[in-house]
Amino acid sequence: AHRLWTHKSYKATLPLKIFMLMLYSSAGQNSLLNWVRDHRVHHKYSDTDADPHNANRGLFFSHIGWLMLKKNEEVIKRGKQIDMSDIENDPLLRFYEKYFQWFKLLFCYYLPTMINVWFWGEDWKTAVAWQCFLRYITTFHSELTVNSLAHAFGYKPYNKDLKPAENRFVATVALGEGFHNFH
């Protein structure tokens, strides 16, 4: 979803878009519209006060603090200026945004839990513990390491002046996203 909707790196067929939305829902993050807007702002204003997870504000802030605190006024201002017409005008994404919370409940919590109950014979409590807590927390923090650790630690083969770095640990836990210096 990241490269398709934030960066428009490729075109996708309708079935692939639907599949990507199911996967995005399973991550349990903010709505796609908010995620894409914040990420576009991050790329345009990286490591400034307009960056939603500005690494210059510290490791904790860039990892999770930005989700816990009120957004900087500059982030809000720049977010309103970012062109989101491709997302806002897509009928599939409008439908998805309208029912996002239901998709999130279904694909992030209900189905992962019930698959463990139905197909692996796990009891309800174990399935909830593994799927609603452990899986969610692990994938959530894996993604957040890109904002924090990949902006703080690693080597810089492409541009030594940028804060983002190549971080093998982050690349491993975030499925390649830790190769961040060319970001």
Quick recap:
The chain is mostly helical.
**Helix and strand composition category:** mainly alpha
Average pLDDT, rounded to a whole number, is 94
Rg over C-alpha atoms, rounded to the nearest angstrom = 17 Å
The total count of helices amounts to: 10
Q: How much strand?
A: under 5%
Shape: globular
Topology order in helix (H) and strand (E) letters? HHHHHHHHHH
Subcellular location: Membrane
Organism: Cydia pomonella (Codling moth)
Family: Belongs to the fatty acid desaturase type 1 family.
Signal peptide: 1-28
Protein described:
The protein has 183 residues and is mainly α. It has a domain at 2-104. It contains ten helices and no strands. It has helices at residues 2-6, 14-27, 32-44, 59-68, 73-81, 85-88, 91-98, 100-120, 124-147, 168-173. Helix 8 packs across helix 9 (124-147). The longest helix has 24 residues, at 124-147. The two termini are 16 Å apart. The mean pLDDT is 94. Keywords: Fatty acid biosynthesis, Fatty acid metabolism, Iron, Lipid biosynthesis, Lipid metabolism, Membrane, Oxidoreductase, Signal, Transmembrane, Transmembrane helix. Its main location: membrane. This is Acyl-CoA desaturase CpomKPAE. It comes from Cydia pomonella (Codling moth). Its cofactor is Fe(2+).
